[in-house]
Amino acid sequence: MNIELKNIKHSPSLSEETEAFTASLYINGKHAGYAKNAGHGGSTDYYHKDAKGKELIKQAEEHTKSFKKPDDRFINMALEEKINDLLYDHLQKKDLEKFNKKLAKITDNGIAYGIPNDSYSYFTFNHSMEKFLSNIKGIEHIKNLIRDKIIPKLGSDKIILNSNIPEKLLLDSGLKKGQYAQPQKNITAQINLDLNNEQIKRGRS
Q1: What is the CA radius of gyration of the chain?
Q2: Residue 31 and residue 33: Cα distance in Å, rounded?
């Protein structure tokens, strides 16, 4: 049985002891009813929108109960727990999207290191990463920064979180596999092209 929450509206300002939200409850692709929590520590309520929704919710209750032991004292809260799990999954996904969006902005202009999908620290540049990687001095600066400032802080649980630094450069900086995020596939080719262009310009001058 497929149980979903749609049209979720989360209210952080109203969330005190529990998450305050309202949502549409869908069961097997049908809009069966609604779910909500006031955020004051009470239970999550759900209710049907019509007779068909009432029957679907009843089926969903029986379905979620089947995953619990018969003597579980919370067996009658099985669907409520499922709804709460769906909400938390949604909020976690939103937080992760926000985390990755902010991280991407930082790595466009610097180097971030930390625990994936959890936390990070960073060093920023006065120019974009792309510009630093397009010249030899910039590449040397990145190497030195990683080797002297970042590697000593990695420990066992932190890695370089940038995906816009060529793997060869990361390895040349002293990192080992597993200490950095997987670089984008097209990074190395673009860097080589930029460096070749720079060397050609130097040869002409």
Answers
A1: 25
A2: 6
The pLDDT tens digits of the residues spanning 123-162 come to: 999 999 999 998 889 999 999 999 999 999 998 899 999 9
Domain-by-domain residue ranges, the chain?
3-97, 108-204
For residues 30 and 54, what is the distance between their CA atoms, to the nearest angstrom? 11
Q: Which tokens sit at 66? A: 């089947």
| Token pair listed for 30 | 């049908």
Grade residue 66 by pLDDT with cuts at 50, 70 and 90.
very high
Element (H, E) at 204: helix 187-204
Q: Give me the sign of the Cα torsion angle 127, 101, 95, 20.
A: positive
Is 89 within 8 Å of 154 (Cβ atoms)?
Answer: no
20: Cα within 13 Å, side-chain hemisphere: 10
Report whether 130 contacts 118 (CB < 8 A). Answer: no
Q: Which long-range contacts (CB under 8 A, 24 or more apart) does 44-48 make?
A: 44/18, 44/80, 44/83, 44/84, 44/87, 46/79, 46/80, 46/83
CB atoms within 10 A of CB 136: 11
Backbone angles phi and psi of 112, in degrees to 5: -110, 145
Is the pTM above the cut of 0.70? Answer: yes
> 30-35 contacts: CB < 8 A, separation 24 or more?
30/56, 31/6, 32/56, 32/57, 32/60, 33/57, 35/5, 35/83
